[in-house]
Amino acid sequence: MRGRPAPARTIVIDGKPLPEVLDEAMIHAVVHGFYDEIRADALLGPVFNGAIPPEDWPVHLAKMCDFWSATLLRTGRYEGRALPPHLAIPELREQHFHRWLTLFRMTVERLCPPEVADLFLDRALRIAHSFRLAIAFSRGEDSMAIAPISREAIS
User: Fold this and answer.
1) Is residue 144 in some structural domain?
2) Is 59 among the domain residues?
3) I need a labelling partner for 45 at 20 to 30 A (CA). Which of 9, 93, 98, 112 fits?
4) Low-confidence ranges of the chain (pLDDT < 50)
């Protein structure tokens, strides 16, 4: 049976259509720009560079591009579980998450239009909260004392 071609699929996130400007190239720029900042950062660089050998960075960056593509563009490309590698880093603390979010915010605000930067940052804040809860739980800490990090708390 023939009919009209199927309309292009509109991705809706939080009740709003995804901005058309957000594409794979922007995701690539954000991921690579962000991890350039991370690797050079005095607080986060030693953690990430200690967990990811230099020869594994290209694979990690490709995986992070897949993660954000799946998260925002709904491509389904990401295969894996993001939390377990973070659970295996005993030195992760609150200050690491605050710095991670600060660098992420700086990166998306530098590279993306405001509506896309907000979308990225909203997801990053949710992911950070989820990870913080899981890490506290896995360490036997009181996860009920963990409040979400707000946009205002990161500069």
Assistant:
1) no
2) yes
3) 112
4) 1, 3-7
The total domain count for the chain is 1
* CATH at residue 125: 1.10.490.10
Question: Torsion-angle region of residue 140: left (phi > 0), alpha (psi -120 to 50) or beta?
Answer: left
Each residue's pLDDT tens digit, 25-67: 999 999 999 999 999 999 999 999 999 999 999 999 999 999 9
- Asked if residue 100 is part of any domain, the answer here is yes
Domain that holds residue 39: 20-139
**pTM summary value:** 0.88
Rounded CA-CA distance 70/140 in Å is: 31
Tell me the C-alpha to C-alpha distance, in Å, between residue 123 and each of 20, 47, 130.
Answer: 18, 22, 11
